[in-house]
Every structure is written in structure tokens, then in C-alpha cells.
Amino acid sequence: MDGFEEKRLRVREGTARIDADGMHYRTLNALMKSLSGSGVKKIELHNVCGQRYIGTGLGDLTIEVHGTPGNDLGAFMKGPNLIVCGNAQDGCGNTMDEGKIVIHGHAGDIAGYSMRGGSIFIRDDVGYRVGIHMKEYQDKVPAIVVGGTAQDFLGEYMAGGVLVVLGLTLSDSLEHNARFVGTGMHGGKMYVRGKVKNPADDVEVTDLDEDDKKLLYSLVSEFCSCFNFDKDAIMAQRFSKLVPISKRPYGKLYAI
């Protein structure tokens, strides 16, 4: 570890504090990986501004991010508990396999892209194509819970997992204006609190059964424990369930 890094790093009782101001993302991630292998159980990152791939390739530890991380936060993540005290950019949870990401703010586009395990909890709104290509792998069922609303192509090409949108940032009408919701969806399920104005032709909007209610209550309870919301008040509103109509929505385009 060179002198530059030593000035930015303090380790005490299993917790490392890193000043990431101006630090290149490769330097930061290499430093975090070395700390993960040395017995550190928690890493606090301060003055983060756009550094990419935070949480990738790390073991079982807690990472607390102060600032705005760059794209692909938690990409290919296998185990860490990642807490962002602010907003996140695009691609958080990209191909995530295990662990948990908690974002105390907004998230950008393609959150949860191709994730196949773990969970993502986002307090506020998200961008476009959130949950695209989500899938399940063996006994892993990924989950994304969005506190606010989403932009177009929510759940596009979903093949598995659970996507929940709570609409807490909307007006009393609880109308979600995202277009093409569930386009190409062929697996998994979405639960949306309020009205989905523009569902794709590939999905069916139905009511919840008892198993749905149990699953939704569990995810909403965990969301509320992260952000100190009232779970009973949230669950008192009507939810819709979106499921795919076909497992091969584009089959006729590519094969006879």
C-alpha cells in the first residue's frame, strides 16, 4: 500500500474508513479487495463521486457508501451488504448473484439488469428498464423493491424474480405513467401499488392471492425496516400483480 493510500485509510476494530475523494475506481476497488481478505468486516467509503464497480468481487462484508457511486454498483456481487447513503447511477446490481443493496435515494437505469439472486431496496424513484432480464437460478429468487415509481420498460424481458413498485412518491391517485411495462416478460412477477396505466400486451394484470400477499408483506416489511416507513399503511392500499401471458412472447419471430 503506497503513501497516497495510507493517508486515505484508517482501520479500527474491524472497520476500515476510506477517503475516496479523487481516487481512481481501480485503485479504490483494489484497496477494498485487499481489506476484504485481511479480516475487515465493514468498509466505510467517504467522498465517493462516480467510482464504478463498488462491491464487485468482494466477500461477506458490509460496505457503506457516502456520496454517489458510479455505474455497476454491486455488479456480479456475491454476498456483501451494500448501503448507499444517497443516490446511485445506472446498472446497480448488474448480474448480481447474492447479497443486498440498500439505496437511500434514487437509482438510474437498468437497476437489477440480469440479476439472478440477492435483493435491492431503493427508497425513491428509478429510471428506465429496471429489472430487465431478471432471472432465477436454482433456488435463488432475486427481488427488487422500489419505493417510488419507475420509467418506461419496467420489467422488460423478465424471466424470473420479483419486482415490487410502491409508488410512495406519487400523488394520491397512485397512477404509474411508465410505458411498455412488462414488454417481453416471460417469467417472474411484478407487484405494483396503485394503477399501471400502460401495461404491455405481454402481461396480464390480476389480483393477488394469499401466497402473493405473504410474499409481498415480507418484502414490504424488509423495505420498511431499511427506510423507516409504515408497512401497514403501505399494505392498506390496493396492489396489482403483473404476470407474463406466454413463456415465449417472441417465439414466432425467430422460429416456426
Widest sheet, order of strands: 1-2-3-4-5-6-7-8-9-11-14-13
Strand/helix succession: HEEHEEEEEEEEEEEHHEH
CA-atom Rg in angstroms: 19 Å
CATH superfamily: Glutamate synthase, alpha subunit, C-terminal domain
Which structural class matches the secondary elements? alpha/beta
Largest sheet: 12 strands, mixed
Low-confidence stretches: none
Q: What's the level 1 CATH class?
A: Mainly Beta
According to CATH, the fold-level topology is Pectate Lyase C-like
CATH architecture: 3 Solenoid
**Total DSSP E strands:** 14
How many domains?
1
Query: Count of helical segments?
Result: 5
What's the N-to-C terminus distance? 60 Å
Mean pLDDT over all positions: 93
Beta content comes to: 25-35%
General form: globular
Helix coverage percent? 10-25%
Please, could you describe this protein's structure?
With 256 residues, this protein is of the alpha/beta class. It has one domain: Pectate Lyase C-like, CATH 2.160.20. Helix content is 18%, strand content 29%. The protein has helices spanning 3-8, 25-36, 210-227, 231-235, 251-254; strands at residues 9-12, 15-19, 42-49, 62-68, 78-84, 98-103, 119-122, 143-146, 159-165, 175-176, 187-193, 195-196, 203-206, 239-244. The strands form two sheets. A twelve-stranded mixed beta sheet has the order 1-2-3-4-5-6-7-8-9-11-14-13. It has a two-stranded parallel sheet with strand order 10-12. The protein starts with a helix and ends with a helix.
